Amino acid sequence: MCKKKRNRLGMSGRNRTRSPYCGSSVVLRSADGIYRENKRDAKLYVCSKYPVCDAYARVQEGSKRIPIGSMADGELRALRIEAHRRFDRIHQTGLMSKKDAYTWLADVISSPMAHAHIGQLGKYYCKVVIEESNRFLDKYRDKVIWKNNGRGIRPLAAGGEQYAIEYGTAAAGH
Ligand SMILES: [Zn+2]
């Protein structure tokens, strides 16, 4: 994996204000007209060629200009949502604590903990996270009770216990 230092928009060095897809400049603007609804008045870094190039990154709520992840096009955004959904199940099931799940994630993407954020991942690593999360959930399938809590199916660890899962030495120190 590329270890080159990147800024918060996922672009390196002098390209920091450029779209990683088309190289056009990036503008900080309201998500109005991009989000179907923008009730929370979100701000985005958007490629100036939008919608021809639909790359954008959302700004953290309560911050004026700190983006949450790197700029992503529609395909990458969909992959990140899917990767997050599968990954979240690992700790939602109680098979791991949230903290341990993030240690596991860092291991899966061969990245230091500080960079273990799905919002920073590219398409390849999103697919790795989806695959590995599915593999993990499959492996411990018999330890999970799939319960309908009225808001859809939510898995819970059998007996409500937290299962300590061994996954090598990556957990040491966290
Ligand atoms: Zn662009």
Written account of the structure:
It is a single chain. The protein has 174 residues and is α+β, with helices and mostly antiparallel strands. 27% of the residues lie in helices and 13% in strands. The protein is built from 3 helices and 5 strands. The protein has a 3-stranded antiparallel β-sheet, with no helix packed on it. Helix 1 (74-92) crosses helix 2 (98-108) and helix 1 (74-92) runs parallel beside helix 3. The chain is elongated and about 50 Å long. 20% of the residues are buried. The structure holds zinc ion. Zinc ion binds at residues 19, 21-22, 24, 47, 49, 53, 55.
Give a quick account of the main beta sheet: strands, pairing sense, barrel closure.
Answer: 3 strands, antiparallel
Residues in helix, %: 25-40%
Uncertain spans, ≥5 residues at pLDDT below 50? Answer: 11-15, 159-174
Strand content: 5-15%
As for the number of domains, it is 2
What's the layout of helices and strands?
Elements: E1 26-30, E2 43-47, E3 56-58, H1 74-92, H2 98-108, H3 123-139, E4 144-148, E5 153-157
Antiparallel strand pairs: 1-2, 2-3, 4-5
Helix pairs in contact: 1-2, 1-3
The chain binds zinc ion (ZN).
Zinc ion binds next to loops.
Features:
174 residues, alpha+beta, 3-stranded antiparallel beta sheet, two-stranded antiparallel ribbon, elongated, binds zinc ion
